[in-house]
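Illustration: MFS transporter.
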Amino acid sequence: MKLPALSENRPLRLGSLMLLYAAQGAPEGLLYIAIPAWFASQGISAEAIAGYIAIILLPWSFKLFNGVLMDRFTWLPMGRKRPWLILAQLMLVGSLVWFACLAEPTPALTWFAAIGFAVNFAGAFQDVAIDGMAIDLLDETERASANGLMWGGKTLGTAGFAFLTGVLISDEGHALAAIATAAFVGLVMLLPLLLRERSGEKLLPWMPGRAAAITRERQLTRWWPLLRDVAGAMAKPASLALGAGILVAFAAYGLKTAFSPTLAVQEIGWDRSVFTNRDATADLVGGLFGIFVSGWLADRIGPMKALGCALLGMALLNGAAVFLWQDGGLYFAYLLAYSILFVLMSVCTYAIAMGQSRGTVAATQFSIFMALLNLGTSFGASRLELARGLGGYEAAFSACALLSLFAVGAYVLSVRLDGGRTPSTVLRDQEMRL
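Result:
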């Protein structure tokens, strides 16, 4: 029986995108939550863990180059993004298996960081391929619901595998946790292997089929016009201010991500499994808030106002944590509140970035903003040693608060320089084509 193409079946299309995003979130649950908590329980210092996180996050800063590469080169008979997606998932499975082969963390922390970098390198390619496929296949009227499902899928993948891999590390070690994650990604890889993007395309290279006409029309064939127009768009004052706001706002998030495992395990005294469970719970609560509340709230009061409320809330939350972080119950409340505010900040940032990404290079400009987001996260994580050197965890919380306040000013300036236009949550189809 021949399965329908993704472009022809809405439930199959939306369900596949949600599962693919779940496969993207699963390694994050392992690498960002379970492994750092395991490191902390082994007595590894906060600065060493922050260095690990900063290194493994770096590949997400290269998403712009991934996107341009994928849009310039592909094998159209198998679809515009499906060949890249299959390759990325094969790389992801292979790097997770490699991760499972590592020894205990104390003598091999550098290798954990290096192979974690490789896992995220593959994950970043997978992310860009999924987003590109979504842009090509989704109707404008279903993008909002699709984004909610994709966000929910990633959140469930991250939270679920933070729980699962945390338990597996406790019982069997990190190797089985990495293999379980690789097995899930491999299972989800059956979707791009079995489902064509459009009818008539090749399912596999040796099978019959040909490129769809609409795919040939959308394929990028020249470099210079793209590079020239992107440079001009990013040189605008509004774009520079928005880029600065994104970089700073997510540097605060990276700093918080870096210090959280050691603060909870080594300072507050939580068991490693307690931290992974509570951090995963916070991610799950934030994800559900993102699916059911954040979009409605941003539409209700406007993305800029909602973003300002989120950043001011994060500043106040981190300011209070300067004095209250040593109480375990209050720190769990901090994690829950921070997750909700972070999701709201992220959703509104995407909306504002999309609103300022216009014209024929909108997709590439948006990719640059997202690369700055990930670069800021990595940079923030790498600054933990400096922050703690200025005054311990109190200084780290204070730095997070100040960065959030600075980001508010940069975001406001960017919107005013952009002419006060209402940020859009959806890019028109013609603007998403490179």
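Reading the tokens back as a structure: The first helix runs from residue 10 to 41.
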